[in-house]
Amino acid sequence: MPQMDRHKNRKVYIEFVANEGFVNLPYNERFTITFITSGSINLSLNDQQRKVVAPSILCLSMEDKLQVFEKHNVSAQSFSFHLDFFNTAHFSEAQGYLSTSLKIEMGLSLFKKDNIHTNVYTVNEKVYPKLYEWFFVMGTEVYEQSDSLWVCRIKKYLIQILGLLEELSIHNEETPVNLVLEYIHTNYSDKISLEDLTRCAHLNRVSLNKLFQSLYGCTAMGYLLSYRLKVAESLLTHTGMSLNEIAYAVGFEYDTYFIKQFTAKRGMTPTEFRNSSREFGKCQ
């Protein structure tokens, strides 16, 4: 069922299920992220049988076929969202969600059906606390609607969750560089030093930067900056968060430094990017 936004008197087509029973999955006309936090479950997903052990996340579209055979002490929560909530930043009080060319690109691959993407993503112990925090706060916002920007914050956490899962699914081998990437993709919103990254890789800074230069054409800290700006672009496009809020969300201590770095790397200010990338400058 859609949520009624009590601040703007509109329907928002999202839902958070605090105790997922796996009876109605996948939900009609929705993308669904199901976070299995404990236990295990035997299921068939798109005619492939498998055992899913917590902690894991299922990323389901309405086209997926799911059948559950057995559940063992399972605890799980689900967040589902209408396609237009995912694809657009604009909502009309008269016409509802309006389709535009805007797309949150982060996370789209998680819902694909091919030989690479299984729709099931294992969460390791280093990533679990951050995903759990983001998922919990997103669910809390659905119920509390603490102020008129609650939808903005849900989009923020949705972007962060899907972005992290997508990066983890790509860089899943335990190499020195991938260990660093995992740390960056999980903790980019926090303060990170080069020493933190060398500690992850068990390499000195010269060796680590040489590897990053060969793979990505930049240093490890340069990659961190690039990823922070990538997340910031999605937040600028799809939310009405202030520049200060976005700067803090992606790991910049001051919005002035965020603006300086964004402008230097993108050739325009964050505000100019926001105005050029979407038709509506107000969070819906």
TrEMBL record:
The keyword Iron does not apply. PROSITE patterns: HTH_ARAC_FAMILY_1, HTH_ARAC_FAMILY_2. SMART domains: HTH_ARAC (SM00342). It comes from the Bacteria. Pfam families: HTH_18. Residues 178-276 form the HTH araC/xylS-type domain. Keywords: DNA-binding, Transcription, Transcription regulation. This is Helix-turn-helix domain-containing protein.
